[in-house]
Structure prediction request, 471 residues.
Amino acid sequence: MLSEEDVQSNSYAGRTPAVNEQPDLLGEDCDEIHLGNEDTPPSKLRLNLSNVNAEPAVINSIEDHDNYSSNHDDNHYAQISPEFTPSNFKVTIREFEKRGDGMNAYIVYKLETEVSGVVGYIKKQYETWRRFSDFLGLHGKIVEKYLAKGIVIPQPPEKSISALTKTKTNSDPAMSREVGIQRARQLERYIGRLIQHPRMKNDCDVRDFLTIETDLPKAVQTATLSSFGVKKIFKNFQDVFSKMAFHMEEGDRWFEQVQSQIDELDEALRKLYSVTEALVAARREMSTSEEQLSKALSMLAACEESTSLSRAISALTDTTESVATAWGKQAEIDNAKFSEPIYEYIMLISGLKDVFGERVRAWQQWQDAQQTLARKRDQKTKIDLSAGGRNEKSDQLKVEIEETVQKMDQLEQHFGELSKAIREEVQRFETERKHDMKKILIEYMESTYNTYAEMLQHWEKFEPIAQNIQV
Prediction:
């Protein structure tokens, strides 16, 4: 825990007691715990995480925070989630279909929802059809409501020009099916992330999205060059210039270390994703090469005069064809269960960085209010000295100063509450990440083992035939 000297060194920590005395805008009573220890060096990122026996009072990393929370009965963490109740909530996308022709063509996906124990859901099963733009419209509503509150919002699949072209201009059903299958997996993971969150799963827009059987109003802000998209780009430029003009001196060591760890994790996952993409491409190339080898061997067996040798080559043809099929299946498994989940986490980290950006914006607004207050007080002092006493303009400035003080206190309160909410979101992210990474790696190893075992069986079956070749 920060010492008294550390607390006084923070640019905003000195006003923390006043912040905690005001009502919590998030609707929960909670205390703030200062995380950090300047005597302890920043922890390095470990992808293979294990329990750390740290003293409860020394918290300077994400793992230490998890241990602290689990070893204390009193909850000193920002609780913005409702109390846990046994529930079942699962959304699957198993079917999709192409509707319309030509440039008006689009794909709709069938969402099958199984739910129990969640407030607002009357039935246990729902079935709805949604198009991709509906998902983007839902995401826009979720961002508008929850990003400013420090909630990490999962990112939907990005709009793909190639997928759009295959859907609208390609008449081959196989092409449209390939696009639909991949997009269905991505959308299922996205909606699954939403309903995992204790706050967003009870959101009215999410509930309507999953339960209303009729078509939703067409989203008008999903086009790449829509006014919403232009505003988002303009906002990103504004954020860049604001960070240049108001550089935030981070006073909370915990936030400083967490952001460093998140950056390291992001870089590591991007490198891993690049390798998995190359791995999938290599397996597909192996499948294609084995298939071509099988065809060449088949032609050779047809013109071979030796009966035993022709029989062996024919058996080798069947073996290489089976191996080609195994490589193709493994490539699809690696893409669906290894490469795509890794990319999903890269996008989730992007959502985590967005909430850190919201915290910086909240700090900048607070600092701007402080500067405005200082400027107005200076103006009032000059007017009082020049006029020799109070006048109408001085009284007006006094009212403005009181309003600015009130606004500054509200912004300070919002900054404190936002920091608490982000701490909880980071804890949730780490807990889910450990579980998900374990699942991803185990599934990858199991599928790879099964594929090699299957290929070994094919070659063992071919071995006695090769031994009996008579020349």
